[in-house]
Automatic annotation (TrEMBL):
Family: Belongs to the acetyltransferase family. GNAT subfamily.
Organism: Schizosaccharomyces cryophilus (strain OY26 / ATCC MYA-4695 / CBS 11777 / NBRC 106824 / NRRL Y48691)
Annotated GO MF terms: N-acetyltransferase activity
Name of the protein in question: GCN5-like N-acetyltransferase
SUPFAM superfamilies: Acyl-CoA N-acyltransferases (Nat) (SSF55729)
This protein's UniProt keywords: Acyltransferase, Transferase
Domain N-acetyltransferase as annotated: residue spans: 68-209
This protein's record includes keyword Transferase: yes
Amino acid sequence: MRINQNTSIDCGNLVLVPYLERHVLKYHNWMKNPKLQELTCSEPLTLEEEFQMQKSWLEDEDKLTFIVIYRQGVENKKPQILHEILFHRNEDMIGDVNMFLTEGYEEVEDDPAAAEDENQNSSTYTQGELELMIAKPEYRGKGLGTTIAEAFLYYMEVSGLVASKGIAKYIIKVGSKNVPSLRLFKKIGFQQTKYVACFDQVEMEKPLH
């Protein structure tokens, strides 16, 4: 989204910055890893496609992403929203966090008076599908994922995006064997709502209203 093109979220040892062209090559090399493809339920892109995707993440109004930077020797702190891109080195990239905004549907109770009107049998809402990836294995299992997710959701609130986009809930989709991710999202308030057997995937959600 354009709203975060010049924004950083400073958490001390972790800094979230916009996904820039300078990050693409490293990110592309990460996503060649079959294990990361499996963990993120994603397909590999060509380098040209990745550059196009980077531009899309930066401009499209239904996508928001940050690259995660780890600063060695800096203490963790509460997230602070800065209206600038903090200086950082590409070699300090450890992952990313992003969200897609999509339309969800909810069945409503049958109303005999509206039986002939299909539009009365369901309601729509906006949902944010959250994805988080720590690409470097040595940074997993240290509690960093929780800090990243909470900082991202904090930004969604204070930036006004939850209100302006009318987001009713957050959702995540995670492979059933990805126990650390399932544990992380449960810790920050997500509850399992569905298991999709054909993808061996668990869906969880966190209502906002």
